[in-house]
Amino acid sequence: MTTYRLQVNGKQHAVDTDPDTPLLYVLRNELALNGAKFGCGLGQCGSCTVIMDGKPAMSCLVPVSAVGARAVRTVEGLGDARTPGVLQQAFIDEQAAQCGYCIAGMIMQATALLEKTPAPTDAQIRAHMSPNLCRCGTHMRILRAVRRAADRLAAGGKR
What we know:
Helix content is about 35%, strand content about 15%. By secondary structure, the chain is an alpha+beta fold.
């Protein structure tokens, strides 16, 4: 066991764990941040997506020892049920969640896109969201939610 200091959602955490432990397990089991989900465990579905230093990362593939000083953000850092973030509200408004399993990863993937490209084209949204899968088939609603959030942000909405 080694102690790792992690910055998650703007807060410092110290966790004692094995260096090979996936970041996903640390987030869920040590920090009780359960938004990111275990899907495939191979980085192929995106349900575990978090943001590390502004870039989406599949937390099931990132050993905690590789995080270092990079800032980690999870869906819990965007808002909550009372005050959802713009993307979270757009997903609600578009009824983009069916079973909801992929949604936290989708929202984090979309967050990374809108932070880098505030006014993406539909093609950019599709390309950026392509690593994330929704087995329920709500991709069109998800794409509309990302577009809605981009439009709200362009109109002066808060993240």
